[in-house]
Structures are given as structure tokens and as C-alpha cells.
Amino acid sequence: MECQTVLPGRECNFWAKSGCVHTGSSCKNTVEECEGCDRVIEGTIGKVCSAFPAPAKKWEGGLCNFATHKKLEIKTADVKVNPLKASKKAAAAKKK
Is 67 within a domain? Predict the structure, then answer.
């Protein structure tokens, strides 16, 4: 349904016939970590997130899963390969 308070005229997943179903009956302003995110939009109360009504809660556990401006770096472990086993495996694959 369309938001009637913070983002008038925009579709909102948290708006029901009885009003805003989010705690406090309104979206919360974005936090500093949200700066640069594509989901931040200007509302009647200031900058708000278009994906989640309480951005501060998303950042409490680390990286917000809706963030478009920050990426999680995945570290891969260097795997040591035994050259003898690798050559046997390659030879076996050629026979097939």
C-alpha cells in the first residue's frame, strides 16, 4: 500500500489499512553508515531507507544486508596441492 506519512505516494511494505505497522508507527532516519547507499531516499522527516524502517537496527550486527555501497570481503584460504597427486589426477582425467 502507499505510505501516508513519511513517504507519501510511494509503495510501502509496512503500511496497512490501520496505518504504519512498524514500531513507533513511522520510519526512522538513516544512520551514518547508510551514507552512499542507493536505498536512501528523502522523506518528510529527512533521509530514510526505502527497504527497512529502522536502519540503525540493521547495522547493529555488522554489515546491513540491504547496503548497496559496501561489500563483504570473503577471504579464501590458500590450499596447498600435492604436486604428485595433482599429476596423477590430471593423468586419470586424460584417460577418460
Answer: yes
For residue 82, is it within any domain?
no
What one-letter code names the amino acid at 43? G
pLDDT tens for the 96 residues of the chain, in order: 667 677 777 777 777 777 777 777 778 888 999 899 998 888 888 898 888 888 888 888 888 888 888 887 777 777 888 889 888 888 888 876
Q: 22 to each of 28, 42, 58, 66, how far by Cα in Å?
A: 10, 19, 14, 18
- pTM for this entry: 0.61
Q: Is residue 34 part of a domain?
A: yes
